[in-house]
Amino acid sequence: MSVSGQEKTGPPPIEQSLVVFDNVSRFYGEVLGVNRVTLSIPPGITSLVGPNGSGKTTLMNLMTGLVRPTRGSIRILGVTPDDPEKLFRLLGYSTQFDSFPKGLTGSQFVYSFLRLFGTSHAECEKQAWKAIERVNLVDAANRKVAGYSKGMRQRIKLAQSIAHDPRVLVLDEPLNGLDPLVRAETIALFRELAAEGRHVIVSSHILHEVDMISDQVILLSNGYVVAEGKISGVRSEISEHPMQVLIRCNKPEALAARVFEQDSVVEARLHADKGGLLIKTRDADRFYRLLNQIALNGIEIESVAPADDNVNSVYEYLIGGEESTK
Amino acid sequence: MMSQYWAQIRAVIRLEMKKTFLAKRGLWVYLLAFAPALMFGAHAFDVMRTRQYQHEVIAGHPVSRNLLDSIKPGMTMDEVQVKLGDPTSRRTVTTRRRTRTWLRYTDGESQYDFTFNDDELERISVHEIASLQEDKLIFATVFQFFFVRLAIFFGCVGIFMNLFRGELIDKSLHFYLLAPIRREVLLAGKYLAGLIATVVIFTTSTALQFWLLVLPYDSASVSQYMQNGGWQHLAAYLGVTALACLGYGSVFLAAGLFFRNPLIPAGIVLVWESANLFLPAALKKISVIFYLQSLCPIVAPPDRDMNPLLALLISSAEPTPAALAVAGLFAVTAVILFFGARKARTLEINYGTD
Q1: What is the ipTM of this complex?
Q2: What mean pLDDT, rounded, does chain B reach?
């Protein structure tokens, strides 16, 4: 599938392929929305993670021009949010607002939105049904949105946001209210869209889901960006918390004795089923190199996996007990 | 580019129309718009019923108008009854000092009430069952003092304020703001949708009122009136209705953008427009009602029961020529919409605080 509006001649200037926040702050009177946010979001799936009031929705509303920054500037693939005519041909936004124009069916909702682009009836019909098929809502498309379940409303909003084939998708809590099957289908759709070279910017508070789907994360707390980048990269930068590695092997006690000879290992704990060992180390790379030598000495290692290389742990380490996700 | 803007405006109008015409919360606008038609309908029904009754009466007691006009004060009751026959109704009140008697006759078009004081005819009152001339004045008064100042005014409050403020309250305005549409184009689309809705509702009511005004009269009288200015009156009333929607619509669309509680500016505008009669000539011109009144075909008579002190405060301004009044209203509308569009450009979606 081609990505609409993409330059055909030569590589675009770097800014034209990024979502850029430059020292952006937004205050609601005395209340802080987000503060001094500087980000460059590349294509792929990017998750905004944070508890209620951390600034996720504000960041998304800033990106889409629904609110204006008090300070700083934003560029979406080189376009400012003050220019809705250009911006919304590049960008689709599925908001968390759960209200719809009254009296419309699902297909009319998507169709009416597309008509606002000034596109012809036939083209709008075609695009609307294509998007509805993509979110797997064809059967319910001719029913009134007012009678939809939460999950169906989420999907019709998603259809609306992808119907015009945007290069940037901004999705506020898009997996909320979806049953497991639809959730899996929707995640697959995000991956498909990201694989096509689009930006898929998702907010979520379900951390294991973020782990599953994200190419990169932006962790937010109290209006500040506390970390950004690939999850593993963010994790390795948190030096005050040793990395945890779970090793499944046939002789965990022997392995414990061997690994304790290493300076970088600060803790080794037998797994409850006695079939493995949980190691805490300050230098994961060195530990993995060493593990190869240990394995040569009669200890059969079944598997080695990082135990806290996920958003949940990263979030816990960075934001700690001061707040929890909703 | 213009063709795209028009396509977008048409898309906005299509979406807004359904909401504006069929919204449950807009039912009171219809009630307000058609209340005068209901009143004129009741009047027409009453006149036709009374006239039918009088015709039935006159069939039993035929009396000509010439004969009725020949009765003069000073005649005795017997003289009157010899000339006219039995009355259609009679009432007598006797006190210690005198006896008063009322006799009523009709020729089918008018009622004649003869008041006797101790058998001598003292007073003759003639009431037409209905007079088109009088009804035209009543129509002009209802049109200017109720229909334009209150019905259209509040109808526009209900419809135009909902276009932006109502959607902010319903948390659905973002639907439009996420489309690649200039805010000015969105404002134009919404304004035109409101204008079409109000013009259709209120001009239909005006036409219906006018039809009910002439309904009880015989075709000859109606035809004579219509050929002698009636059509122009109808056109003027329809035009004033449409212009009122145009002017008030722009005011309340902008109020919905600028104010969180638009009922406050609506109240202020209502007071200003109502006080127009008492404002100095220069200030009169800064109002919608001044231009609309200049365009009304019949000047509504001032309230006879008005406090004399208030009557002293009435100031008169030279009525504006029709072309200037229309141009003035368009200019005022354009200026208000310009500021509305500027506000729309910076409009934010912040439902939590709206």
Answers
A1: 0.76
A2: 87
